[in-house]
Amino acid sequence: MRLPKKGTPYLYYFVALFLALFWRNIMRHSLYLRLATVLIQADLAREEREWKRQVRKVQYEIPWGNEYLLKDIGLHIDGRTISDLEVPAIKTERQIRHLRRLVRLRIAT
């Protein structure tokens, strides 16, 4: 590039130099393309946040009308846990049985 003529503002010279050096990059990634990609990324992020919100809501939906699903979860129809109604003797018997099974299965090294 030639130096600017005498009396030409240097701003024009720097703009011309900038355009000459970065013209290919400016044309390759135009402002509209950049704006479109930013908007698409924002839209995808919004959709993902919405989807996560829906998944979180479904995670804590308890099927109060279905007695069998509640039993699978470990709840009674009235909302109490199944372990609240267990007799302590039955509970300790089951725990002892599990502990004995663990001791039997322990590998002697």
UniProtKB/TrEMBL annotation:
The keyword Transmembrane applies. Keywords: Membrane, Transmembrane, Transmembrane helix. It comes from Aliivibrio wodanis. This is DUF1127 domain-containing protein. The chain crosses the membrane at residues 12-27.
